[in-house]
């Protein structure tokens, strides 16, 4: 290297071999330190270039205000280009964030005034970064004018979002719709809601209650007992344990299942009689699945739940809650049979249920869910484009195929009949999840996907305290699906 | 006009810092100071430009005419020092002179922005440090029998830090300084020099080069004595709860002993000893555990132990490659930014490109130091300059590594750039010692 010139000269002359010998230690020390400096520099540059953007998006980073002084926050668009959020002047000529769709996109797009949420949170740094042409940026910097921040295109579909918002009506709950083959989130509604235009003014009112706060995005953060929709997991575990014999399974349902002091009733105490595994799933027979629960290997059951993303992180960049499934070998009988039918201590979010549904529809492979399609500078030049990517295989193709067949049966012969005979086909599972102590109060669940042969979208609906899944959540899902196929013109 | 300066300054400063750093390495290729003259003149030009542009921006941003006044005064200081060094010591290393002034001037710019009061104090310190370092090379070269003072150095350094351990002021949980007549001294900064002088003396004894039996015995005795001294120094630093300081003393000793004994076992064994020492102090001291936790998972302890480092990461990340521009970031949100986190403040406001160039200048300084050791035939001067190289290099590594979360924070200052009189003075003395060795080589 060029900075050892002096030594090299001596070596080539061969006059002083001892000298180089004497210098070996010093060279070792020198290289050691240069390597240390080099590592710090690489680490530093890697931080600045790669991970800093995520780090500085933290709500603890007060310096975002410094960026706001230099950049006009960018706009947020739907997938088709409708404006979901923009900077505007209010009547006092003060710059404010304006959300034209108000409550409809309250949780999905979020707000940016009192802290950040939704897309406003996830894309915050991009919205505050200007990738306008360099000469324009320089010009503006020199004259002290703020530059235009980058614009964010989301995956949301306005008409679908509006349909979901209307379909949920006055109920508390959530709807999430994603595109199976890409992982794009097309619609996400949560109720109760709020107007993001007036978050600051109404802050005290909407943030006061914690559990009931309209600020909570129930689609991502609401933890609910999954009820009968969880039978998908129990079913998967059973066919994994009994791959050769599950088709011969039979059970005689007399409306309830007794184990010691515990009694599990079928919904509305229906008596299903002699049922096969498929029939039990289609009719959502609690007694059958409680019985199956007692037959399962608890360790493997837990493992299956874990591969379906229970007790683990979801691939999301916005705040969410983790699903929990806590059965272990020390669990008592009551807990086991309750868990097998989605009651007990099992809790999950609608988004989590939607992702499992997506994986079943997509031959077992979960595509990474995302809500940001691309980032453009204000002139429309693409800065970053997010392509669909595989996230994780949740089950084998054969298993997914079988679950698809069973879920199609639910619509053809079982609790999802209201979705039969439409211009599109549906596969799904209903759920009526009991909660609280009063008997009969239940959350209404539906999760499913359209056109099982070549799946389009997965829809998950929860309506708090509405009643049975087939009576309430299924019609809501139908309205969402109708809207999708009407506007798609398919 | 002011708009153009303010708008362009971020890019211009990054550009000139890159040119400056580039010329640091260009200088290595040439032989002798005469050939380097052109390079070093250009460097001086860039250095002055960076300083003047920065203060001009500060003037426009704050409207404080003192910025211009101090800018002029500091230009006088910078140019006077360059001229005097060239005049007094024609063979001195120009790159080292430039780098020294680069570190000082960048530090003064940031301090003026962070706290004008600290800036004024540091400016006085800088002038004193430069004035002291002027006659030092001549003085040091006049002292002919250094080895006579070896034990004197070793013992006085030890007494200095021991004294502070017993009666010193406690700042942020560590006993580091004593106040004399209202001025506070951080004694360990000066003890470092005495420690290096002591080790250079005892480890360059003739017995390290002979092969007779007596030489072997003497070598063992000298090694043992040096180990005893080093152990005491490190122990006192650990008891003062200054872990960064302890690490510096330890690494200086290990590297100098390795160079003296020429045995690869020395760093090998020391690595194990150092790891064991770290493990023990992790178990014993809660402040060490806190530092470690804050390093591993800063965001889990963001409101407590991890506050400083997360603020530092926010500063660096938000600044980005070109920085926010002087006065437009919030480096003052990092606690004790002017002592420990100058690097983050530089990255936030002057830009990460500037910060990388800053590291490059540090590397070139380190290489100039250690090249002085490599090219010297006198074992005493070899070890002395090696000790100073290691001290400098390790301190830079601990500081920059700490604030970028590469390693846990140690609370070590960034040489010549951080606020602090003692560290600035002692570093200036080390630069002067290296200059004296370079001058005597030619």
| The CATH class of the domain at 227-367 and 381-488 in chain A | Alpha Beta
Beta-strand segment tally of chain B: 3
> What is the gyration radius of chain A calculated from CA atoms?
28 Å
Tell me, briefly, the overall form of chain B: globular
Flag low-confidence runs of chain B.
none
The beta-strand count of chain A equals 19
- How big a fraction of the residues of chain B is strand? under 5%
Average of the residue pLDDT scores of chain B: 90
Strand content of chain A: 15-25%
Fourth-level CATH superfamily of the domain at 227-367 and 381-488 in chain A: DD-peptidase/beta-lactamase superfamily
First-last Cα distance of chain A: 68 Å
The assigned structural class of chain A equals alpha+beta
Largest sheet geometry of chain B: 3 strands, antiparallel
How would you describe this protein?
The complex is a heterodimer of chains A (about 500) and B (about 450). Chain A has about 500 residues and is an alpha+beta fold. Among the domains of chain A are: about 1-50; about 225-365 and about 380-490, 3-Layer(aba) Sandwich (Beta-lactamase), CATH 3.40.710. Chain A has helices at about 5-15, 15-55, 65-70, 120, 125, 135-140, 160-170, 205, 220, 230-240, 275-280, 285-295, 300-305, 335-340, 350-360, 395-415, 470-490; strands at about 70, 75, 85-90, 95-100, 145-150, 150-155, 175-180, 185-190, 250-255, 255-260, 260-265, 275, 365, 370-375, 380-385, 390-395, 425-435, 440-450, 455-465. In chain A, β7 (about 175-180) and β8 (about 185-190) form a beta hairpin. In chain A, α10 (about 230-240) crosses α13. Chain A is globular and about 80 Å long. The model of chain A is unreliable at about 1-20 (pLDDT under 50). Chain B is mainly α and about 450 residues long. Helix content of chain B is about 75%, strand content about 5%. Chain B is built from 18 helices and three strands. The longest helix of chain B is centred in the first third of the chain and has 31 residues, at about 30-60. Chain B is globular. In chain B, about 55% of the residues are buried. Classes of the chains: A alpha+beta (about 500), B mainly alpha (about 450). Chains A and B meet through α1, α2, α3 and α6 of A and α1, α10, α13, α16 and α17 of B.
């Amino acid at each position: 290297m060029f900075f050892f010139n002096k030594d090299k000269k001596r070596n080539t002359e061969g006059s002083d071999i001892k000298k180089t010998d004497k210098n070996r230690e010093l060279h070792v020390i020198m290289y050691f330190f240069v390597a240390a400096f080099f590592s710090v520099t690489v680490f530093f540059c890697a931080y600045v270039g790669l991970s800093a953007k995520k780090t500085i998006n933290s709500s603890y980073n007060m310096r975002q205000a410094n960026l706001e002084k230099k950049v006009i926050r960018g706009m947020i668009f739907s997938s088709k280009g409708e404006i979901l959020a923009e900077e505007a002047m209010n009547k006092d000529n003060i710059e404010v964030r304006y959300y034209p769709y108000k409550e409809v996109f309250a949780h999905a797009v979020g707000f940016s005034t009192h802290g950040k949420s939704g897309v406003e949170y996830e894309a915050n740094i991009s919205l505050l970064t200007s990738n306008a042409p360099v000469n324009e940026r320089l010009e503006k910097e020199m004259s002290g004018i703020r530059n235009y921040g980058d614009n964010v295109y989301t995956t949301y579909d306005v008409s679908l979002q509006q349909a979901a918002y209307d379909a949920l009506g006055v109920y508390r709950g959530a709807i999430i719709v994603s595109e199976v083959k890409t992982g794009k989130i097309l619609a996400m509604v949560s109720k109760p809601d709020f107007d993001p235009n007036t978050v600051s003014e109404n802050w005290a009112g909407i943030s006061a209650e914690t559990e009931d706060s309209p600020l909570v995005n129930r689609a991502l953060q609401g933890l609910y007992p999954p009820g009968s929709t969880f039978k998908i997991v129990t079913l998967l575990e059973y066919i994994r344990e009994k791959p050769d014999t599950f088709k011969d399974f039979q059970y005689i349902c007399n409306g309830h299942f007794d184990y010691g002091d515990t009694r599990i009733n079928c919904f509305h105490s229906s008596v299903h009689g002699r049922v096969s595994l498929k029939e039990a799933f289609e009719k959502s027979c609690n007694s059958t699945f409680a019985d199956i629960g007692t037959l399962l290997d608890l360790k493997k059951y837990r493992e299956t739940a874990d591969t379906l993303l229970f007790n683990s992180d979801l691939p999301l960049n916005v705040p969410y809650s983790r699903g929990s499934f806590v059965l272990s070998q020390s669990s008592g009988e009551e807990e086991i049979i309750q868990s097998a039918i989605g009651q007990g201590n099992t809790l999950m979010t609608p988004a989590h249920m939607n992702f499992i549904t997506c994986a079943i529809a997509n031959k077992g492979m979960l595509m990474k869910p995302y809500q940001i399609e691309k980032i453009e500078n204000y002139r429309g030049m693409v800065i970053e484009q997010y392509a669909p990517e595989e996230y994780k295989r949740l089950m084998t193709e054969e298993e997914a195929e079988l679950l698809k067949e069973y879920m199609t049966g639910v619509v053809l012969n079982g609790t999802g009949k209201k979705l039969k005979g439409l211009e599109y086909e549906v596969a799904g599972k209903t759920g009526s999840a009991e909660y609280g102590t009063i008997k009969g109060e239940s959350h209404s669940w539906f999760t499913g996907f359209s056109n099982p042969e070549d799946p389009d979208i997965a829809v998950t609906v929860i309506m708090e305290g509405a009643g049975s899944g087939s009576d309430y959540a299924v019609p809501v899902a139908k309205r969402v699906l109708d809207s999708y196929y009407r506007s798609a013109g398919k | 006009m002011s708009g153009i300066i303010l708008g362009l300054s971020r890019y211009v400063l990054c550009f000139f810092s890159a040119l400056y750093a580039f010329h640091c390495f260009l200088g290595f290729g040439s032989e002798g100071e005469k050939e380097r003259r052109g390079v070093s003149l250009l460097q001086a030009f860039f250095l002055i430009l960076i300083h003047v542009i920065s203060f001009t921006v500060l003037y426009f941003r704050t409207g404080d005419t003192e910025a211009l006044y101090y800018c002029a005064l500091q230009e006088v200081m910078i140019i006077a020092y360059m001229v005097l060094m060239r005049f007094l010591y024609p063979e001195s290393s120009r790159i080292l002179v430039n780098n020294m002034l680069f570190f000082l001037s960048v530090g003064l710019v940031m301090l003026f922005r962070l706290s004008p009061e600290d800036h004024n104090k540091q400016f006085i310190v800088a002038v004193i440090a430069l004035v002291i370092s002027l006659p030092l090379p001549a003085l040091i070269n006049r002292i002919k029998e250094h080895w006579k003072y070896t034990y004197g150095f070793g013992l006085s350094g030890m007494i200095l830090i021991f004294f502070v351990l017993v009666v010193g002021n406690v700042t942020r949980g560590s006993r580091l300084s004593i106040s004399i007549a209202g001025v506070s001294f951080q004694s360990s900064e000066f003890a470092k020099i005495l420690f290096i002088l002591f080790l250079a003396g005892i480890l360059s004894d003739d017995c390290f080069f002979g092969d007779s039996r007596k030489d072997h015995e003497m070598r063992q005795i000298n090694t043992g004595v040096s180990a005893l001294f080093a152990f005491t120094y490190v122990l006192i630093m650990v008891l003062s709860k200054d872990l960064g300081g302890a690490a510096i003393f330890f690494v200086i000793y290990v590297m100098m002993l390795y160079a003296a004994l020429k045995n690869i076992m020395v760093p090998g064994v020391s690595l194990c000893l150092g790891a064991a020492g770290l493990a023990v102090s992790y178990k014993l001291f809660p402040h060490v555990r806190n530092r470690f936790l804050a390093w591993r998972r800063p965001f889990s302890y963001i409101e407590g132990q991890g506050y400083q480092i997360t603020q530092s990461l926010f500063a660096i990340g938000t600044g980005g490659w070109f920085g926010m521009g002087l006065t437009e970031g919030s480096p003052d949100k990092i606690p004790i930014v002017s002592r420990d986190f100058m690097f983050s403040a530089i990255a936030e406001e002057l830009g990460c490109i500037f910060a990388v160039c800053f590291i490059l200048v540090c590397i070139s300084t380190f290489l100039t130091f250690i090249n002085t050791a490599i090219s010297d035939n006198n074992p005493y001067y070899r070890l002395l300059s090696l000790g100073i190289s290691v001290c400098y290099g390790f301190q830079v590594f601990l500081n920059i590594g700490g604030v970028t979360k590469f390693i846990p924070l140690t609370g070590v200052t960034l040489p010549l750039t951080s606020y602090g009189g003692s560290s600035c003075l002692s570093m200036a003395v080390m630069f002067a010692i290296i200059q004296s060795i370079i001058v005597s080589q030619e």
